[in-house]
């Protein structure tokens, strides 16, 4: 959607009290016999001139998106031209100023898409720096750069630029007006606003952290907003339907900077609180209660429950790891052993679900667990098999047994693949398992992989997690393979 601003922003008072200075109009591009048209072919220069004419016309009619497009095309033809860069910079400034002072309620009647005001001001600053490098003895680049820095709320840096520009032209009215503006804003920035609930999230009732302002004009913590949207795509306050997602919705940079600057201690506490949710700790693991998983497995998950959607978002901001566990049928509670899995690929879907690819890593024993925001967190102890000492007969026997089991496993898989030629799903499973086969120099990991080749009951897999004798696990894996090869199942 092209942005059209009427009347011109430079003559319009705004809620922020800041008016752009020195960009009421743009500079006309010289015709061939007035400028440097002879440095390129006449046809190319004529096309460049037409683009600048159309860009200036769009700017004067406040069709700023179109003006930027024309100026950018002209810049591709003649990079580093002072007039092209200055005019494009002015268009970026006008758009940023308009968006920065647009009331949130206006989005209900005329929503906008595209870059935010901070990004536009940053692009204007880049163009202003380029112009300054090309035209240091002119006051124009100082005016452009000062406007951009004020829009970015970098008032002290803007003052330095203004003073440098006043050395070039002490009577520059735009720079003198900008100096008064920066002095006013600098005084305001040193006065901390009173802490009121206006800076609180209406969901968690705490100071806003990573705030997002919705199209209906309400601000919430990012995590709070999407946690409520897991149960319905409406604003938690006014119930307006929201068409936003975590992938496309950006944090309100200006509001975040205001909060972080004026309430640094409280904001730091909120950050620590959020970090504890996304990175619970070395011995703490969020749990996905579904099934018993063994190390050396790779599979896919479809996450649709609101509590687990929240958990996945937090995991993806942290170390991308969680525990998978089952409800023990003998006790009716969470089993005492689980397996850590790592999310290797996460695809957020438009309806809020997540499609995950995960790989199982290592097992752990659950010491205790508790509920947090609907899902469970566990304090765990990482478990490893008890190995014979290096160089002993028992250790050599274990390695020899592992190598023999690996040979048998390869033969078994070859026979199983031949037998599964008509079953594409089973064949794909066997090929995937073959690719995950670990080195025989790690007998414990190999023993788990051996046990994944056959489909075992959850109770049998849970027993395999509890066993700390690698030889015993290899023996069971070989027995399971032999039983499946014979077409029967151990009871």
UniProtKB/TrEMBL annotation:
Keyword Transmembrane helix: no
InterPro entries, per the entry: Lon_prtase_N, Lon_prtase_N_sf, PUA-like_sf, TPR-like_helical_dom_sf, TPR_rpt, Znf_RING, Znf_RING/FYVE/PHD, Znf_RING_CS
Span of domain RING-type: 201-239
A GO cellular component annotation in the UniProt record: cytoplasm
Span of domain Lon N-terminal: 282-485
Protein name, per record: Zinc finger (C3HC4-type RING finger) family protein
GO molecular function, one term: zinc ion binding
């Amino acid at each position: 959607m092209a942005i059209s601003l009427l009347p011109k922003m430079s003559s319009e008072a705004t809620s922020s009290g800041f008016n752009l200075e020195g960009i009421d109009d743009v500079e006309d591009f010289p015709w061939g016999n007035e400028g440097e048209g002879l440095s390129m072919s006449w046809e190319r220069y004529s096309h460049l001139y037409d683009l600048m004419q159309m860009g200036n016309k769009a700017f004067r009619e406040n069709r700023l998106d179109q003006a930027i497009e024309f100026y950018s095309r002209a810049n591709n033809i003649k990079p580093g031209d002072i007039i092209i860069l200055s005019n494009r910079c002015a268009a970026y400034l006008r758009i940023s100023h308009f968006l920065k002072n647009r009331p949130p309620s206006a989005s209900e009647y005329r929503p906008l898409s595209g870059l935010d005001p901070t990004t536009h001001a940053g692009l204007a600053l880049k163009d202003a720096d380029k112009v300054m490098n090309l035209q240091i003895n002119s006051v124009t680049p100082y005016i452009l750069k000062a406007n951009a820095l004020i829009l970015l709320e970098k008032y002290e840096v803007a003052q330095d630029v203004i003073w440098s520009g006043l050395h070039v032209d002490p009577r520059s009215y735009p720079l003198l007006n900008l100096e008064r503006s920066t002095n006013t804003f600098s005084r305001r920035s040193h006065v901390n606003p009173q802490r009121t609930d206006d800076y609180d999230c209406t969901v968690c009732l705490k100071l806003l952290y990573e705030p997002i302002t919705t199209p209906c004009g309400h601000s919430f913590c990012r995590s709070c907003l999407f946690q409520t949207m897991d149960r319905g795509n409406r604003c938690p306050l006014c119930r307006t339907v929201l068409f936003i997602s975590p992938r496309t919705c950006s944090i309100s940079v200006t509001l975040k900077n205001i909060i972080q600057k004026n309430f640094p201690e409280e904001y730091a506490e909120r950050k620590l609180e959020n970090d504890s949710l996304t990175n619970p700790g070395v011995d703490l693991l969020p749990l996905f209660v579904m099934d018993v998983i063994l190390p050396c497995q790779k599979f896919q998950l479809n996450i649709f429950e609101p509590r687990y959607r929240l958990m996945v978002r937090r995991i993806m901001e942290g170390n991308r790891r969680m525990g998978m566990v089952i409800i023990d049928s003998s006790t009716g509670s969470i089993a005492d052993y689980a397996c850590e899995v790592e999310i290797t690929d996460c695809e957020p879907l438009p309806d809020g679900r997540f499609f995950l690819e995960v790989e199982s890593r290592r097992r752990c024993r659950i010491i205790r667990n508790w509920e947090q925001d609907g899902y469970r967190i566990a304090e765990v102890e990482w478990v490893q098999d008890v190995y014979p000492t290096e160089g002993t007969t028992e250790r050599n026997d274990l390695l020899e047994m592992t190598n023999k089991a690996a040979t048998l496993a390869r033969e078994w898989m070859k026979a199983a693949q031949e037998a599964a030629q008509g079953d594409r799903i089973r064949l794909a499973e066997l090929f995937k398992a073959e690719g995950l086969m670990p080195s025989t120099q790690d007998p414990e990991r190999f023993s788990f992989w051996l046990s994944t080749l056959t489909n075992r009951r959850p109770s049998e897999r849970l027993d395999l997690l509890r066993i700390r004798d690698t030889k015993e696990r290899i023996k069971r894996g070989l027995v399971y393979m032999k039983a499946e090869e014979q077409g029967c199942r151990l009871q």
